[in-house]
Design brief:
Pfam families: OMP_b-brl_2. It contains two helices and ten strands. By secondary structure, it is mostly beta strands.
Length: 237
Amino acid sequence: MKKAVILFLLVLTTNGYSQFAKNMFSKDPIINLENWQKQRVYFGYYLGFNSFDFKFDYKTPVKNDIQVKKTTGFNVGVVGDLRLQEYINLRFEPGLYYSKRDLYFPEFDNTNDAVREVNSTYIHFPLLLKFSALRTGNIRPYLVGGLSTTLNLSSNAKSLDDNFQQKFRVKQWTSAYELGLGIDIFTEYFIFSPSVRGMFGISDELIRDNPANGSSPWTDNIDSMKSRAILINFTFH
């Protein structure tokens, strides 16, 4: 299944690149879907990949930062687009994001204490403004930015166990701002839009260990822990 999805995306990307080359070097390109983006509202869907990280701020300086081992996750979702004017659109892109991160605490010698897994299944709700450039042939680049809120279905927020029982807990709801760029490629039948976006957390999502268990070497010195990520999406309208 993974190989089939990757092959499918490669074919679409190759098709998009062919369209790009044709429009860059052809004097009189055939204009595809000329009136599509004049619609007031239109919809689509996206598939993609992500790489999530954590940014740590500490209460007191540390010799060795907490290390984050990142993995590549996947994204899938839908797009609702509202045209505000010719070059500005309001977009809502709810989706499901899966990510996995391993945290390494360098002060521990015992592997069971030094490593914590953070598996995250996010329902992501970004509200974005899309600023499009002038269309050239069948190519139209754009910038996108906005705010998002995220529900983490794997947060362990309600668990009574904490790091003393090897449970690393994070909050269910977090918020972030997002900035990115992309390109609309108008094919004969649909619009293919590859994009890359950075997501930067603005709320602390760490749940500290229970005071009843005593001083916590895992969470006591962390002033804030915020997610950040690179999101790569392939959108189809």
